[in-house]
Specification:
Bound molecules: NADPH dihydro-nicotinamide-adenine-dinucleotide phosphate
CATH superfamily of the largest domain: Medium-chain alcohol dehydrogenases, catalytic domain
Strand content: 25-35%
Order of helices and strands: EEEHEEEEHEHEHEHEHEHEHEHE
Low-confidence stretches: none
Shape: globular
Helix content: 10-25%
């Protein structure tokens, strides 16, 4: 059996993540114990939630351990099995190491049909980020015709689906993204009514007043910070906010203050709801039916960035935190 290449957390970042936080190791793959499988990984998903997990503070998931491999959503093929649920040749998805191979007890892994869609799609538009967008839009934002929905990180893995679902629900959809190319894609391909570049636009309030003259009824919040503060001030009566993430704050040493004038929540009868998608796995089948159907019918576009080679994962992850990815960021492992 060959060795496995893996990437471990070398040290915890303080502020911005840098290359010193990662170390690449080659390890011998151990013989399987009863109940274990060996997965040869093909694709690894890189996601913003990995940044809070690199810090010591316990969030909704435990922190990564220093000296141990980082983990993430990954798709691969079972190459050896001593587990009745999995056979050699099965394609599986679930949380695996940042590695070429992971020995696993199979818990939390599920088999997928590789013929349904290209493997990276199972980590993006048919996977966790898209499920997140679907849940937040359908169960919290609930946009409808005549309303205005706003989506930050509009072309990211989550945002691109969230925006398209709001449009399909009949709402006007406005987003923001970190580049002209991303904004053009949002409007031309994903059907946003408008999208502004948050890196060049200095006055978020003014641009929102221009693009959302009727105010905002539903906000799918991915970014937090000043963009959210400007959105919050423009929420209409009975507005809904699906609090999905706050990526602009993940590298801050101190937590950022919330928006001013919190009494607005009462005055405008707002609903602000945080959610973690892993609490809603019972709805996965419903999601796959609905979103899979939209994809098949050509009613949903998706965009990915695929980076070649596991060794490039740390650099790609640091880039994700600066907006260098365009759509779902996936690492192709066996390059
Ligand atoms: P993306 O694929 O969109 O990648 C992150 C994007 O965030 C970057 O490409 C960049 O896009 C944007 N970004 C990065 N830094 C900043 C910044 N300082 N200010 C503004 N934008 C920034 O990630 P996802 O779509 O996977 O995730 C989006 C959000 O959803 C994250 O906050 C994530 O933590 C959250 N999430 C939450 C889940 C839940 O269960 N609650 C599940 C999955 C994701 P740009 O160039 O446009 O700025």
């Amino acid at each position: 059996m060959t060795d496995a290449l893996q990437i471990v957390l070398a040290k915890r970042p303080v502020g911005d993540v840098n290359g010193d936080c990662f170390r690449q190791e080659t390890v011998a793959i151990p013989a399987l114990a009863e109940g274990q499988i060996l997965v040869r990984q093909r694709f690894l998903s890189l996601d913003p939630y990995m940044r809070p997990r690199m810090s010591e503070l316990h969030s909704y998931t435990p922190p990564f351990e220093v000296g141990k491999p980082l983990t993430g959503g990954s798709v691969g093929e079972v190459v050896d099995s001593r587990n009745d649920r999995f056979a050699k040749g099965d394609t599986v998805i679930g949380m695996l190491n940042w590695a070429t191979h992971t020995v696993h007890d199979g818990k939390g892994l599920r088999k997928i049909d590789p013929a349904v869609a290209p493997l990276p799609a199972h980590l993006g538009v048919l996977g966790m980020p898209s499920f997140t967008a679907w849940y937040g839009m359908k169960h919290i934002c609930k946009p409808k015709a005549g309303e205005t929905a706003f989506v930050s990180a509009a072309t990211g893995a989550v945002g691109q689906v969230a925006g398209q679902l709001a449009r399909l629900a009949g709402a006007k959809v406005v987003g923001c993204a970190g580049g002209e190319d991303k904004c053009v894609w949002a409007v031309r391909e994903a059907g946003y009514d408008a999208c502004f570049n948050h890196r060049t636009e200095r006055d978020y309030g003014a641009v929102l007043d221009r693009l959302c003259p009727q105010g905002i009824d539903a906000d799918f919040e991915n970014v937090g910070g000043p963009i959210f503060h400007a959105v919050f001030a423009r929420l209409n009566n009975f507005g809904r906010v699906a609090f999905c993430g706050a990526i602009s704050e993940y590298q801050d040493k101190e937590p950022m203050a919330g928006p001013p004038k919190m009494f607005t929540i009462v005055q405008r009868r707002l609903t602000l709801q945080g959610f973690i998608i892993s609490d809603h796995t019972a709805l996965m089948g419903e999601f796959v039916n609905e979103v899979g159907g939209l994809l098949k019918a050509g009613r949903l576009k998706s965009r990915e960035t695929i980076v070649e080679g596991l060794a490039r994962a740390p650099q790609a992850f640091m880039g994700l935190l600066k907006g260098e990815n365009f759509g779902k960021l996936v690492v192709k492992i066996d390059a």
